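Just scan my protein:

. . .
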Amino acid sequence: MEKARLIAKLKRERVLKSPEIIRAFEKVPRERFVPAKYKGLAYEDIPLPIGYGQTISQPTTIAIMLEALKVRKRDKVLDVGSGLGYLAALLAEIAKEGKVVSIEIIPELWKRAKENLRNYKNVVCILRDGSKGYEKEAPYDRIVVSAAARKIPKALIEQLKVKGRMVIPVGNLECQHMYLVEKLRKDRIRKSSLGYFVFVPLIEK
């Protein structure tokens, strides 16, 4: 009931529009991807702490990111900042015939994300610095970053396919632009702002 209420709110506010994204929101149980003490708040439209200074993003923010990404069912997607795996699970439902490579730099969160995502056969969880991407699986049709970078990492641009799309927040600690980055040619990108947001910083080594 709480999930249905949240989805109805996101549809009414026109942040959730695409049938395949709506289906993913309906199917993935967000309560499995939040700490036990916050399960009662899983379907509130707010970010929640997941430990280690990290958060699971507000559902509105996730919907905006997914709508901008336009993930297709056979896409290979790089998910930077696994957290506890919620966004990776949504991506796995949308890219059913594709692959999701989910990167997390904090070992404790990586272990928990890996466990939470164990039933998704099209997801692989990698422990590493997400700002460097994961060249072994590149290039990617889509890249999504769930932490704020000071600038768009060069490695992520290089690992994005031509005609690919990336969503990434860029800015300082107080406020960031969330950008849709489209790779027009090997040496040319186009950025468009999706608005102002607040994310935790992208941890880089």
User: Anything to note?
Assistant: The helical segments are 2-12, 19-27, 59-69, 86-94, 107-116, 154-159. The chain has one domain: 2-197. Residues 2-197 form a domain with the Rossmann fold fold (CATH 3.40.50.150).
